[in-house]
Amino acid sequence: MRALRWTVMALVLAFQASICSAQAPLGSSQVSLQAGAAKLDITPDKKDWPPHIEGVLDPVHVRALVLDDGKTRAAMVTVDSVALTTESWDHITAAAERELHIPRKQFLLSASHSHSAFFKGEAFEKQVLTALREAAVKLEPATVSYGTGRSYINVNRNMVDKQSHQWREGPNYDGPSDKTVAVLRFSNIDGTPIAVYYNYAVHGVVTGMLDQFSGDIPGVTSDYIENALGDDAVALWSMGAAGDQNPIFFQQTYDLRAIRVANFAKKGEDISNSMPPGGQGLNKNNPVIAKLFDQQKQMVNTYGQMLGEEVLHVLRANMERPQASADLEGVQESVTCPGRTRTDSGRAGHPGTYVDGKPVDIRLGVLRIGDTIIGAVDAELFTMIGQRFKRESPYKHTILATLTNGASSSGYIPDEAAFGYNTFEVLSSKVKPGCAEGAIVNGLLDLINETDQMERAD
């Protein structure tokens, strides 16, 4: 019995020692990976506001992370924007490759998908490059670690109305929804965070009707994480497969929608099966609407705190052992699917009619950081496509970043089963059924295999 007690004690001490070893600072001689991050406020001056913008709810940013493994570089950039054009992607990556020696194939430029901001053009592209330069200047020895958690602030947004028995937008608590929060932490040799790259599947639509600049859920969450970590740490969001995922409590689909439909009806317009952008048709001076808008402002902060706290929980408790050496490998390609053009109208509820359209190109990418895979797609995907990719990936640590590296002409990309739903995402999709899900998943898996071959060749 005494021998058994000593054996158990030895095992406990060995386990504690391993934990301490995993968390202990590393000397610079042990580290080959370098990381540097920067954050830049890109909120436009009032004179440059678009006509529909009436104010600033919270500042919007570009966040940049540059990595160097001693042989090559990679970059991840997130912009508080509903989308980023392929033209901007081309200009930014060409300049970054030329000036900062970051290969285009190892560049992830992601839109946060906040519906309260949109950026493009030369001035914006210069701002992104400024952030990249600042991040590159800050390169220092670093470690990388991976962890996951779960957040319940999203919900499948396609439901069948109980009265009309037709598809419409609304919370479907039984529908497929990926709750995974994936987190990559980059720290210096003393363990101080340099950057956090996190991924979650939810639309940034809470503030979209306010007609004010806002980073919405992604921006507020990143601000919350950065404030908690301090010391200039930068938190970069990437959107998972959120094409059919809304915030779980989304006022736009309830009272505000009903008010707007009634207001348009008074003018002889039926928008019951459409959705005008922003806050069109709403009198913001009406006390009822003002109260609902105030609730939206509170809600986006609630979501940001809840998701931010889950990221912080992962950082505290769920991170795997930090790696001081992580080879960088990246590769990209495009796949093409048959296209279609819709010939009728209506947001949801009835089958659409179509004629053949132009083929649709979809840009795919894979960035491997050590034993972590980040897949990239330049479109909005339904959650089941993302879940299938992560399930079939040969890597335990697999992330899918959508709306990354430009903007496909596809519109939403449903999974094959969802093409049978008369939802607004399916009806507006410009790809024919039978191609995109398989082309994306298999294409990404082929790219993973290609990075493996590149690593073996090194």
UniProtKB/TrEMBL annotation:
Residues 1-24 form the signal peptide. The keyword Signal applies. Residues 325-352 are annotated as: Disordered. This is Neutral/alkaline non-lysosomal ceramidase N-terminal domain-containing protein. Keywords: Signal.
